[in-house]
TrEMBL record:
Residues 29-129 form the Disease resistance R13L4/SHOC-2-like LRR domain. InterPro entries: Leu-rich_rpt, Leu-rich_rpt_typical-subtyp, LRR_dom_sf, LRR_domain-containing, LRR_R13L4/SHOC2-like. Gene3D superfamilies: Ribonuclease Inhibitor. The keyword Repeat applies. The gene is Lrrc18. The lineage of its organism: Eukaryota, Metazoa, Chordata, Craniata, Vertebrata. PANTHER family: LEUCINE-RICH REPEAT-CONTAINING PROTEIN 18-LIKE (PTHR48051:SF42), PTHR48051. This is LRC18 protein. SUPFAM superfamilies: L domain-like. It comes from Calonectris borealis (Cory's shearwater). Keywords: Leucine-rich repeat, Repeat. GO terms for cellular component: cytoplasm. The keyword Repeat applies. Residues 227-242 have a biased composition (Low complexity).
Length: 256
């Protein structure tokens, strides 16, 4: 009596887990336990540790146990939209992992395990929508990384070891409190490999995340629809030559 009642999530049995296995496009076995109202990591799924993909996204998980290392075949791990405050060091043992999504949690830089830099085959890493105030320079060891999401954190800088990863093609660091946002954009443009990064489908986003994305999209569309004022158009009345940029219509100039 008087004891606060904790939030009780859905209990996942081995039977439920087995019925949640799907075959992915490339023929791999995917254990899909997303949107199940899970509050604690279900120990029963350790008996299914030979799956290729594990989806525990959009639950209420606060912790991932060290036993995650039993999933040695794992290539794809989705933990986005939970309440994770840290990750176990054992995650670094998942050497076959090429996709890791831990977006929209409560991760801090202090609680990011250094062992993340051991995931040598990682291609896609999403750390967006967390509480990171810096990115470990050790992530520069992930030489196979092609896409990284760092958006909606508390970052003031991105280490060169990450920005200059040899195979990096997409980096999204939007909505961070960079001291000089223009300078950050210049860094991104200089390597000609940075694009907007979306790692979650629209249908998979929670209401708050979807609203953020839609608001940003609306702002972008408004900017695209703004017609530049004619008064701002450069005028060069003394430079009327066929090669000049002063006239839009060169044929008209030649006819005169």
């Amino acid at each position: 009596k008087g004891k606060a009642k904790g939030q009780k999530g859905k209990k996942i049995t081995l039977k439920i887990a087995k019925n949640s296995i799907r075959i992915s496009f490339d023929g791999g076995r995917r254990l899909d336990l997303s949107k199940m109202g899970i509050t604690t990591f279900p120990k029963c799924i350790l008996k299914l540790a030979d799956v290729d993909e594990l989806d525990l996204s959009r639950n209420m998980l606060k912790k991932i146990p060290s036993s995650i290392q039993k999933f040695q075949k794992l290539r794809w791990l989705d933990l986005h939209s939970n309440q994770l405050e840290d990750l176990p060091e054992a995650i670094g043992t998942l050497q076959n992992l090429f996709y890791l999504n831990i977006c929209n949690n409560k991760l801090t830089t202090k609680n990011l395990p250094e062992e993340l830099n051991l995931l040598k085959n990682l291609r896609i890493l999403n750390l967006g929508l967390n509480c990171l105030d810096s990115i470990p320079t050790s992530l520069g060891a992930l030489k196979e990384l092609k896409e990284i999401g760092l958006f909606d954190n508390a970052l003031t800088t991105i280490p060169n070891s990450v920005k200059k990863l040899p195979k990096l093609k997409k980096l999204n660091a939007e909505r961070n409190p960079f001291p000089d946002s223009t300078k950050q954009e210049e860094h991104a443009d200089s390597i000609k490999r940075i694009e907007t990064l979306y790692l979650v489908q629209e249908k998979d986003l929670c209401c708050s995340c979807l609203k953020i994305c839609q608001d940003e999209k609306d702002k972008l569309n408004k900017l695209k629809n703004v017609t530049p004022s004619p008064s701002k158009k450069p005028s060069f009345p003394l430079l009327l030559t066929p090669n000049s940029s002063a006239k839009d219509n060169q044929e008209e100039w030649r006819l005169r």
